[in-house]
């Protein structure tokens, strides 16, 4: 009698514990199927920064490249207009009474947004005898510069404006309007309409620069641009 | 649950069980007790989860760091949206996407009878750009770092299947009819 009761109690206990043990599988399975990932990626759009980049031309709008650093600065080509160049007074040599024109064009590159030219800063000319004897005038225009302009015909069209109307020393910074000079936004796939900076250099007849400076003197205008 | 076996009284004719049989019975008993205890906890948790609408959330990204780092496991309590308080970390469902779990910045009822919730991750500089339109949210009531990996491991069919077979084998071993001495 005692034997039988002991056996059945033992079996019941085993069954209960066995059933509870199976709960482990239930729990693991429930946790595995119930748990879901949460994520923090945002539903907002992806923001891309716009590109603003300019390129410039030193051949009156013929070809454009990046002239972003002093090392890659564009070298201006001068056209002597007065007195009429001869073989004795060629190209880029200056002398009292000489007048030379040059142009510099800036445009927004393809894919860029619109921008403005905010300032034009002359490099220091120090006491360089050649540079201090030079004077310049400057205007901007959307039409290409007339590189053959004389001192009287050198003037902006209705779509441009003076930056330096009266002849001034190179150390005088051109007066850029506070609103900047607009660089048009390019249409898709092409560069923007360029802005031409027309420069006329003169050597006053009163100046007395040193003669025959074969090494030449270098002067740089830095055109600052920003997106608008 | 910890009822111990009432061993049959030894009789002169059968003699005492062998040392090997005794060791085997002790191992069986300990294994079964441990497994049964773990299983009982699991059953209780599953019942609690069903009764109190609890579920588990695993964190795949770290926008709630350092409170809840990537790889954390959290238990969320599903409640009506109006019971969520500003400052609670809540999980909101998104149609077609994984849910978002961020801290509640503001909540206001909308015309459709739900709530528009503005959420922000603790590690994010700004709130999420668009409010979430919800009627229920999961409020995080408990979280622990690193446990998502354990859940993922259990989700592996081989692991879960192996666990099931191991428990079945233990039960079979315990209940296998054997000749008591």
UniProtKB/TrEMBL annotation, chain A:
The organism's place on the tree of life at top rank: Bacteria
Signal peptide annotation: 1-30
Keywords attached to this entry: Signal
Protein name as it appears in the record: Ribosomally synthesized peptide with SipW-like signal peptide
From TrEMBL, chain B:
Pfam families associated with the record: Peptidase_S26 (PF10502)
EC number: 3.4.21.89
Domain Peptidase S26: 39-104
Domain of life (superkingdom): Bacteria
Enzyme class: hydrolase
Record-linked CDD domains: Peptidase_S24_S26 (cd06462)
Swiss-Prot/TrEMBL keywords: Membrane, Transmembrane, Transmembrane helix
Residues that span the membrane, as ranges: 36-59, 158-176
Entry protein name: Signal peptidase I
Organism: Gryllotalpicola daejeonensis
